[in-house]
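# step 3/5: fold
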Amino acid sequence: MRKILFTLVLLLSVGIVANAQFKFGVKAAANFATTNGDGDDMKVGFSGGLLGQYKFNDRWAIQPEVLFNMQGPKGETGNGTLKLNLGYIAVPVMAQFYIINGLFVEAGPQIGFLVTAKAKIDGESEDVKDGFKTVEAAINYGVGYELQNVPVGFFFRSSIGVTSMAKKSYGFDEDLRNISFQLGAFVKF
């Protein structure tokens, strides 16, 4: 009985994989970033990297990505304009549902690894990486459109941090979380 069940599962798996399509690609976006902190304004940065899409059928796909995201807000302090420049290697895994003719919605978790953190006040820069946690988690959701006869598409995505990014021991009173919106394009091979 086990051999029959195993053979059946194997045949179904091969059938699903045979119908699936896997593509690699690159993407880039303008990243509009801030935090949930009081008085924080949005700052424009860059987001870009690699993607791999596994399409199960005409409607469903999963798309893991490896991106570099520029995060962090800007705001006014008693000493001038502060820009918090945080650089993350982000790994989102997006479930995508194709509605009609290349139009899709997507949602999924993301884990981010802090690689750089600098505070800039009126031209003077200081490394503040010790004040931030090295790993953060977020939930992403968005919408996109993939052109029909060329491997190019466009997307809008929002990312909401679900874990605090700042260490309270460093003097942060708030439970700071990253918030960003991305508007960009991708190419699949």
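# step 4/5: annotate
The helical segments are 2-19.
# step 5/5: archive (pending)
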